Amino acid sequence: MATVMAATAAERAVLEEEFRWLLHDEVHAVLRQLQDILKEASLRFTLPGSGTEGPTKQENFILGSCGTDQVKGVLTLQGDALSQADVNLKMPRNNQLLHFAFREDKQWKLQQIQDARNHVSQAIYLLANRDESYQFRTGAEVLKLMDAVMLQLTRARNRLTTPATLTLPEIAASGLTLHALQPNSTKNFRPAGGAVLHSPGAMFEWGAQRLEVSHVHKVECVIPWLNDALVFFTVSLQLCQQLKDKISVFSSYWSYRPF
Hints:
By secondary structure, this protein is an alpha+beta fold. The chain has helices spanning 2-44, 111-128, 139-161, 168-173, 224-254; strands spanning 58-65, 68-78, 81-90, 97-101, 108-109, 179-180, 203-206, 209-212.
């Protein structure tokens, strides 16, 4: 019986030593790796223009829709803003070609890019607050930090992968053209309210007008540096989860016992 207890104590001592090493060494190694990756991600969102770097460069991207040529165009992205757009729309009924362009004095700020950049900055800030001199004392403390970092990264990823959709009144207010119902229309007016409805036949009131959506076209534009950022987010999230898993293995022995 004494031999078994001695063996158990020895095993426990080894496990405690491994846990100390995990908290004191490997955790900081992972934090350094995360900071390096997220700094690379943040470079994708860097917007030159301050200091001596000069104005933000303009990038042109092809706009198109899958399986149809009804919408074609070129977008000019300048940092986090659409500065120019040249779009051709072919009307489905009569093949009439309509041309649209941004006014030279207008820009469309992409709030999604701004938000994603802010979330990355917040994640880096959380990691930087736990530098090499900081001593983690419990597994729970590490898990709390990882959860906070993962929350910021998940929010950043979601802002880029989930398009921000305008409500119908917002589209009308933006100056985009919609089809107005004629005063003598026999259609039964069924307002869609403020819901996000972008389907043909959706109706709503804006000011004194009754409007109806006649056609909907979905177009996409691939921006390579945003894809790079998403890869960095995915790798960082995986590293965070791997560290959490390692900590959790030891938590079953000590319930995050401090050292």
